[in-house]
Design brief:
The protein has 334 residues and is α/β, with parallel strands linked by helices. It is built from 10 helices and 12 strands. The strands form 2 sheets. Strands 6-7-8-3-9-10-12-11 form an 8-stranded mixed beta sheet, with helices on both faces. Strands 2-1-4-5 form a 4-stranded antiparallel beta sheet. Strand 7, helix 7 (200-217) and strand 8 (220-224) form a beta-alpha-beta unit. Helix 4 runs parallel beside helix 6 (170-182), helix 5 (140-153) packs across helix 6 and helix 6 packs parallel to helix 7 (200-217).
Length: 334
């Protein structure tokens, strides 16, 4: 039986658009517009969608850093962290000081391994920093031993500890980022496109490493990515986002091989086919441009490009409902 670790309910993130001499709010960008999902302990939930659909914003809202990086941002809904006793804590309501204990439980691996590491710090200092903040009772010797152990766990030699980020390749830097994320013994790691900046062969190494670490430490992942084949490989369930909304959630096999939502079907046909002799795959080409989050269409956000759109699609935002194959889909037509 699955045990929930994180529960996101009707998450909404709106960024203000200011204008005029006094820089007053004249509009808002609805980057995330009512997203709901659950991540279970030991599970990987993949999140896919085209650029600008709100995937990264969801990840940053979960770790509650948006108010610090985007002044004026408005957040609604709930992001409930559920401890082993079943107690829920809504992270969106916490102050920075109240949030600190949960920062050790939820860590993040960033997309760019070149800019996510402090170039002025050695590898040892980078990996040790979370330990110094969240485990102040550890001695310097204990911290040093754990840093070396973490580097070994992610496949880096202990002698690398004294080197600096510019001395490593992209794949090695991402391993350093993974070691830093593991330092506080987290329950959940948010992976924001962790392999998109890496070569294909290095991507496979990092993905295999993350799967091994998940088995060893019982980690849960929210894996945000563009590459659908990578998401299918690492995820147990997949959530498909479009224009700030989740349009389909289901098991990896259901979403990848039997998508139900029209957008999911179009997205899956865009996956490159490795077999050049296969001719039975039909590419679905969507017409029209992606609407702007500044002025979303009424009702279903996908209706302006959907080949199945009906007049009723403009009247109300469709809610997620369970369909025949067990997936939950936000569509009035299918």
């Amino acid at each position: 039986m699955s045990t929930p670790l994180l529960e996101v309910k009707n998450l909404q993130v709106r960024f203000p658009v200011t204008g005029g001499v006094l820089q007053r709010k004249v509009a808002e960008v609805r980057a995330v517009d009512g997203v709901s999902f659950t991540i279970n302990r030991g599970e990987t939930l993949g999140m896919v969608g085209e650029s600008g659909c709100g995937k990264t914003t969801v990840g940053r809202a979960i770790i509650n850093i948006l108010r610090h990086v985007a002044p004026g941002v408005e957040l609604d809904g709930e992001v409930n962290y559920i401890d082993e006793q079943g107690n829920k804590t809504n992270l969106l309501n916490l102050s920075p000081s109240a949030m600190r204990p949960f920062r050790s439980k939820i860590q993040m691996i960033f997309q760019d391994p070149f800019s996510s590491l402090n170039a002025r710090l050695s590898v040892k200092q980078i990996v040790a920093e979370p330990l110094e903040i969240h485990s102040p009772n550890l001695s310097k010797n204990e911290i040093n031993n754990k840093v070396l152990w973490l580097l070994e766990r992610v496949g880096l030699q202990p002698e690398y500890a004294g080197r600096y980020p510019h001395e490593f390749s992209g794949g090695q830097r991402q391993r350093i980022g993974i070691a830093r994320a593991l330092a506080t013994n987290p329950s959940l790691i948010i992976c924001d496109e962790p392999v998109s900046a890496l070569d294909v062969s290095v991507q496979a190494q990092v993905i295999n490493l993350m799967e091994d670490l998940q088995q060893e430490f019982g980690l849960s992942y929210l894996f945000i990515a563009h590459d659908l084949s990578v998401v299918y490989h690492i995820s147990q369930r997949i959530a498909v986002m479009y224009l700030g909304n989740v349009v389909e959630i289901g098991t990896a096999n259901n979403v990848y091989f039997d998508p139900v939502h029209p957008y999911s079907k179009a997205l899956l046909t865009a996956v490159p086919e490795p077999d050049p002799t296969r001719t039975d795959k039909q590419r679905i080409i969507l017409e029209g441009d992606i609407p702007t989050p500044l002025n979303k269409p009424s009702g279903c956000g996908f209706r302006t490009r959907c080949p199945l759109a009906q007049p009723a699609c403009a009247e109300a935002v469709p809610e997620l409902r369970t369909v025949g194959n067990g997936s939950t889909v936000a569509c009035l037509v299918v």
